[in-house]
Design the sequence.
């Protein structure tokens, strides 16, 4: 059975040594001193390790069942949900006037990491509800907010997002679900939605569905899509539940992983709903939530990597096979632990350096979302918008890769259900697909975010890298191991951007053919920046006489590994990008 | 439901246009003209597509069950087994005097590809039996061969390989299973073996277990291991079955994939067995079989890639989402098929170029095994021994990667069980682990094969590449797209070998830390050589006025893609290798 230990120390290092959050000018951050975040993370860690983690295998094994329209979640999920609700974790970063705790999004991200590592399928019920509530909080009327938000944030109700239909996922302009206006201002919503996470469940009294649909007079395509709130039970004026709405769960998907989460076919048969936000502006309402939603998926990538790494590490320390080539390390045992072998260490350090770099990137992203939302900082908004597809695409690819590496550490045991590593692989796989496949992320990055506002955000990113290098180039330890490789990676990224500008002008296919490589090239570069910042923070801590020397030295050593052995991938991505459209487009579709 | 179409044309291209087998001097190859192999492949293809493929999902869903010591394989497996047996497929390449068909190993490899793509879990029963029989054919006494081989090759009996024990897999010197000599020349075998594929099954009348064990007087460690044949039912002098031996299946593993194959815990309780080969030379007997067994696993890698690619391609042609940025391709439909999008093509071409390159490499390897075995050609034996860890490690990593890419082509549908892609991912995963994990392959390559015989084999490989380039450098079309990138890759490989020689002398950890990257660097280079050879063969076919122009042009275009976008990975592998032991070894085991 796999285990999970909350990595509180690593989290605190990022929040306080690297991001120095309590010194930040973001409203609400001044309260976030070391003791405060330690207390929050400790409480969340207890729930993660003691309540959610033991249910992870249960959820995978039992899965969800649908009987007579009722979805049963796995044994223990309802009790865990109630415990989460009572602890106030559902609305940790929601506005107090809507029933939330008013904490920064960064804190919710850090606690969400713990829940997600412990039980990704469970945490999806929480995360999707949170996402639906956030959309309502931004775009709903005051009445809608008063009706729906407090019950979601106190865990009595849950929420869902309904986008996909059988014939359209990426291309939502093809949507067929209809919303017909009624005389009382409501709409009758009719259509089928698929892949609705938590669309039906036995955790809550009511489910608040946010549904994209088209009104009869709507313009063609994506510009005719509107957003509707369609509750499972209609809500009376006093907030109590009224009659059952005309919607139902028509089936559950059988899937590769996240079995504990119910993936529902949802049928709307003239269900009563109300417009959220402006008519025909449904996609815009969704886009508002996209940074937050995609950051949450980026987080899923490294959180599955984290728990997989922990279990791989435990195995590598316990399993005795072979001897250290440089001399026996465990003379009293029949063999040495396999962590002595260079290739096992290579494998573990890939896992560790990617996971810790990914965490840094996601926390920085969450801080930018706070800066954007709490200070209306447009620069932060532009930077996070640029980086979101990188975070989602790169970190979920790398998170999945990490679970596969961790599984490999265990050899044959990694393939068995007994050790649990294979579940992390199966669960992590979905994060590369949903919230926009990683291919779509790369198109969003190259086609939309990169050229946006004349390339202002990417220029600001390069400036940030340049400034960091310049400010620290007198630090010799940092320069050789971190700043020099970062400079090389950043140059590769600039060269790729230049190639897109020059050759993409001539033929857009030259840019689109390299979009996936660009996403990874950017991902490596920005994680390289994170490691350089972490190394600097660790060196400062050591210089100021921090007691836990080994912890900070380990950060530097892990970072040096990343810079030496992961970051050089930027060169190959650049070569691929510069090969242009020809190799990708040459073959006729009929001849594949 | 996934589909599978035997890629007969691609197979024939390799056998006749590239390897030109019927012109070869290898005994038995002169019979292998186009018509002959076409007939064999067509028959095998029918069984693969019509009998085995429909059982692939069944096997995954039902799995195997153990009840009262009896293992039941999934519905239909027994009938399929009997059909395979009646067709003579079990002993296709076995010696006629042992009851086989006497065909070259290459032909068995080509038919095995079809069975493995169609149903990997099923084909493992066939493959493991074949492996056990091959070990007996080489090391068994005449009496042992007469007793065990004909019933295995005609499919009445099956065979297994018993190496792993709970506390040892890689480090078999720690083995505890005992074999005590009896007065009649037999041994009593006692111990527990795990992960025994097909250890118990209902396909056959008898199961011939090959078991590694130690005699009481054996030297310590790996040098004290002997090989024994331990049948489930003892065999009477007339070949009929006698009493049940003291061995049993103690349990089935629950695993990530290959559910149709029974992975057994085998308990030997003083079971009667007989020595195979020399006392204390059990590992040598196993090693004899290793090239063949590991080539079979390398094949599994690309065969799962092949079937996954076929289904991804079908989806990419059918699924309508979005429009071609260069102009609408499907004006009568609501959207264009997704194969028009550059990033979808990039994904498909990665799959296609890796799979076809992998097939070429495996066929070439099978031909070298024939050359080694049928002509006692030591150069071929040394070359295949050098390349086997590369083929096994690189092609199974890439095969798994291909299934993941194919799954990604389908977006959300790829994650559902309904479309079947996720099974290919789960099944392909095991090939990176068994028959020696890919980490172990890389150690075998760098620690043993590379320096073997003064580096003779790797020198011969470089000479082969040099000669090929030199002989063809006047061919401009080949030079730019193929020979130049191949030269670059080969130089990277040479530089890595040089680094190991120079720095590995000083500190062996400098070589061991780069072993995995070296395996991939070598893999890319040799697949690059395969593509250069395929391109040359395709150009020759076009020059000689071959009727199927598009087929040959597609080969060249696919190869150009590989050279432009896959092969450049060699540079990054070299940089990682040259970073040496320091980044990998710096961190103390306690601080991971």
Sequence:
């Amino acid at each position: 059975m796999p285990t999970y230990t909350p990595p509180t120390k690593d989290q605190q290092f990022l929040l306080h040594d690297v991001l120095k959050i309590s010194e930040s000018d973001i409203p609400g951050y001044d309260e976030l001193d070391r003791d405060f975040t330690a207390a929050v993370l400790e409480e969340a860690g207890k729930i993660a390790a003691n309540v959610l983690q033991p249910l992870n295998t249960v959820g995978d094994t039992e899965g969800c069942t649908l009987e007579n329209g009722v979805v049963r979640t796995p044994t223990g999920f309802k009790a865990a949900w109630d415990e989460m609700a009572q602890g106030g974790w559902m609305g940790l970063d929601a506005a107090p006037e809507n029933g939330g705790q008013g904490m920064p999004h960064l804190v919710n991200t850090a606690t969400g990491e713990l829940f997600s590592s412990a039980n990704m399928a469970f945490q999806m019920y929480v995360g999707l509800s949170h996402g639906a509530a956030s959309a309502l909080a931004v775009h709903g009327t005051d009445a809608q907010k008063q009706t729906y938000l407090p019950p979601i944030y106190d865990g009595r109700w849950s929420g869902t997002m309904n986008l996909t239909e059988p014939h359209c996922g990426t291309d939502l302009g093809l949507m067929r679900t209809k919303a017909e206006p009624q005389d009382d201002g409501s709409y009758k919503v009719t259509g089928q939605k698929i892949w609705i996470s938590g669309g039906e469940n036995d955790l809550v009294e009511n489910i608040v569905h946010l549904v994209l649909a088209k009104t009869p007079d709507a313009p063609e395509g994506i510009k005719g899509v509107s957003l509707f709130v369609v509750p499972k039970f209609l809500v009376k004026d006093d907030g109590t539940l009224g009659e059952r709405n005309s919607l139902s769960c028509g089936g559950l998907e059988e899937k590769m992983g996240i079995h504990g989460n119910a993936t529902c076919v949802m049928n709307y048969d003239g269900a009563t709903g109300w417009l959220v936000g402006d008519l025909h502006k449904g996609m815009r309402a969704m886009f508002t939530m996209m940074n937050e939603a995609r950051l949450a998926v980026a987080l899923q990538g490294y959180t599955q990597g984290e728990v997989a790494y922990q279990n791989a590490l435990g195995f590598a320390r316990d399993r005795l096979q072979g001897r250290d080539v440089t001399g026996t390390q465990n003379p009293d045992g029949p063999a040495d632990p396999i962590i002595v072998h260079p290739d096992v260490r290579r494998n573990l350090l890939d896992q560790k350096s990617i996971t810790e770099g990914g965490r840094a990137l996601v926390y920085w992203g969450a801080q930018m979302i706070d800066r954007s939302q709490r200070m209306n900082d447009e620069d932060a908004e532009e930077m996070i918008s640029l980086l979101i597809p990188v975070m989602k695409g790169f970190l979920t690819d790398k998170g999945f890769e990490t679970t596969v590496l961790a599984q490999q550490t265990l050899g044959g045991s990694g393939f068995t259900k007994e050790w649990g590593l294979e579940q992390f692989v199966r669960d992590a796989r979905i994060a590369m697909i949903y919230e926009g496949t990683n291919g779509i992320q790369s198109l969003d990055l190259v086609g939309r975010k990169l050229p946006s506002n004349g390339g202002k955000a990417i220029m600001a990113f390069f400036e940030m890298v340049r400034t960091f290098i310049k400010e620290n180039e007198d630090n010799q330890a940092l320069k050789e191991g971190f700043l020099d490789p970062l400079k090389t990676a950043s140059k590769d990224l600039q060269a790729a951007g230049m190639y897109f500008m020059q050759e993409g002008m001539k033929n857009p296919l030259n840019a689109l053919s390299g979009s996936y490589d660009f996403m990874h090239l950017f991902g490596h570069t920005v994680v390289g920046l994170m490691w350089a910042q972490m190394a600097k923070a660790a060196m400062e801590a050591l210089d100021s006489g921090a007691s836990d020397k080994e912890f900070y030295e380990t950060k530097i050593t892990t970072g040096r590994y990343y810079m030496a052995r992961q970051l050089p991938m930027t060169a190959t991505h650049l070569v691929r990008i510069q090969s242009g459209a020809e190799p990708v487009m040459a073959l006729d579709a009929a001849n594949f």
